[in-house]
Write a structure and sequence with these properties.
Layout (H helix, E strand, L loop, with lengths): L2 E3 L5 E3 L11 E5 L5 E5 L4 H8 L1 H6 L2 E4 L2 E4 L10 H20 L3 E8 L2 E16 L2 E5 L5 E14 L2 E3 L9 E9 L2 E10 L7
Parallel strand pairs: 10-13
Antiparallel strand pairs: 1-2, 3-4, 5-6, 7-8, 8-9, 8-12, 9-10, 10-11, 12-13
Length: 197
């Protein structure tokens, strides 16, 4: 045993010390091309929180290596069993929501980070004013959806710009609810006369 004595008289042994293991990191590439390093085991919610606490409050899912996944899944291990289970659950929930064919609604669910609420609406755009898109369901219920930097607008199966939104368009809108604000994460423009999305 290699005992040592400090100047103050404190005695310590080198055999009790363990080498510090280097923190394993992974590099994530964002849609804008930016790359950031995170410790291995980081979840999608951890990444969102590092970007902005308000973003983390609105985050429920992520796209990892082109695959939609629950945001509580480790962002560095898309092939794990936990990732596949979470992805299966999310797909089932989306399928059930689509099969309901409802006009509008919202639902809340508990996550490890606290409760989350998602909303959806099928209807007609009544106005577009800046980032606000007003949509009226067939029963007259009108909700305002807020376009954000992460909003996706789709038409004819392809991504399009927000300028494609106009009064009179038939749409499906969906996204997280934060307070009284409904963020439009997805708006699908439907051709007039087609079946609801």
């Amino acid at each position: 045993m290699n005992d040592h004595k400090s100047e103050s008289g404190f005695q310590y042994s080198i055999t009790n010390l363990k080498p510090v293991e280097p923190v394993q990191k992974v590099t994530l590439t964002f849609p804008d091309g930016a790359k950031r390093e995170y410790p291995k085991g980081t979840t999608g919610l951890d990444v969102a929180k590092a970007i902005s606490p308000s973003l983390a409050k609105r985050t429920v899912a992520m796209v990892l290596n082109g695959v939609l996944a629950d945001a509580s899944v480790t962002a560095t291990s898309p092939g794990t069993v936990a990732h596949r289970v979470a992805l299966r659950r999310l797909r089932r929930a989306l399928i059930r929501l689509r099969l309901l064919g409802g006009m509008y609604g919202q639902f809340s669910f508990e996550t490890k980070k606290g409760p989350r609420t998602l909303a959806f609406e099928r209807g007609t755009v009544t106005s577009v004013a800046g980032a606000d898109v007003a949509v009226r369901a067939t029963d007259g219920t009108t909700w305002t959806w807020v376009l954000t930097g992460s909003s996706v607008i789709r038409e004819d199966g392809t991504r399009t710009k927000a300028s494609a939104l106009a009064a009179g368009e038939q749409v499906f809108a969906g996204g997280p609810v934060s307070g009284s604000t409904r963020d439009a994460r997805l708006i699908v423009i439907r051709k007039t006369g087609t079946k609801p999305a």
